[in-house]
Amino acid sequence: xxxxxxxxxxxxxxxxxxxxxxxxxxxxxxxxxxxxxxxxxxxxxxxxxxxxxxxxxxxxxxxxxxxxxxxxx
Length: 73
Prior knowledge:
The protein contains two helices and four strands; from the N terminus they run ββαβαβ. By secondary structure, it is of the alpha+beta class.
Protein backbone atom coordinates (compact mmCIF):
# COMPACT_ATOMS: atom_id res chain seq x y z
CA UNK A 1 0.00 0.00 0.00
CA UNK A 2 1.34 3.43 -0.91
CA UNK A 3 1.39 5.87 1.96
CA UNK A 4 1.44 9.65 1.61
CA UNK A 5 4.76 11.34 2.26
CA UNK A 6 5.21 13.00 5.67
CA UNK A 7 4.43 16.72 5.81
CA UNK A 8 6.51 19.00 8.01
CA UNK A 9 4.92 22.12 9.46
CA UNK A 10 6.90 24.79 11.33
CA UNK A 11 5.36 27.37 13.61
CA UNK A 12 7.59 29.76 15.55
CA UNK A 13 10.05 27.49 17.40
CA UNK A 14 7.97 24.31 16.96
CA UNK A 15 8.03 21.66 14.24
CA UNK A 16 5.30 19.14 13.51
CA UNK A 17 5.49 16.10 11.25
CA UNK A 18 2.16 14.80 9.96
CA UNK A 19 2.38 11.12 8.97
CA UNK A 20 0.28 8.05 8.30
CA UNK A 21 -0.36 5.52 11.05
CA UNK A 22 2.07 2.61 10.65
CA UNK A 23 1.54 -1.05 11.40
CA UNK A 24 3.99 -3.41 13.08
CA UNK A 25 4.96 -4.58 9.58
CA UNK A 26 5.95 -1.04 8.47
CA UNK A 27 7.31 0.16 11.81
CA UNK A 28 11.03 -0.10 10.98
CA UNK A 29 10.69 2.13 7.92
CA UNK A 30 8.40 4.51 9.83
CA UNK A 31 10.93 4.83 12.69
CA UNK A 32 13.74 5.52 10.23
CA UNK A 33 11.62 8.29 8.69
CA UNK A 34 11.00 9.82 12.13
CA UNK A 35 14.72 9.79 12.89
CA UNK A 36 15.46 11.40 9.50
CA UNK A 37 13.31 14.36 10.56
CA UNK A 38 14.82 14.51 14.06
CA UNK A 39 11.59 13.53 15.84
CA UNK A 40 12.01 13.26 19.63
CA UNK A 41 8.33 13.00 20.65
CA UNK A 42 5.57 11.18 18.81
CA UNK A 43 1.96 12.06 19.64
CA UNK A 44 -0.64 9.49 18.61
CA UNK A 45 -3.97 11.00 17.63
CA UNK A 46 -5.68 7.83 16.43
CA UNK A 47 -6.08 4.29 17.71
CA UNK A 48 -2.81 2.45 18.17
CA UNK A 49 -1.93 0.31 15.15
CA UNK A 50 1.57 -0.68 16.28
CA UNK A 51 3.65 -1.56 19.32
CA UNK A 52 5.27 1.61 20.67
CA UNK A 53 8.17 -0.24 22.37
CA UNK A 54 10.41 -0.37 19.25
CA UNK A 55 9.87 3.36 18.68
CA UNK A 56 10.75 4.17 22.29
CA UNK A 57 13.80 1.90 22.01
CA UNK A 58 15.05 4.31 19.31
CA UNK A 59 14.83 7.18 21.83
CA UNK A 60 11.50 8.62 20.63
CA UNK A 61 8.99 9.35 23.39
CA UNK A 62 5.45 8.17 22.51
CA UNK A 63 2.40 10.00 23.90
CA UNK A 64 -1.35 9.55 23.39
CA UNK A 65 -3.50 12.59 22.67
CA UNK A 66 -7.08 11.42 22.99
CA UNK A 67 -9.16 10.01 25.81
CA UNK A 68 -11.29 6.93 25.26
CA UNK A 69 -9.21 5.44 22.47
CA UNK A 70 -6.20 3.15 22.37
CA UNK A 71 -3.66 5.94 21.83
CA UNK A 72 -2.16 5.18 25.22
CA UNK A 73 -1.64 1.45 24.63
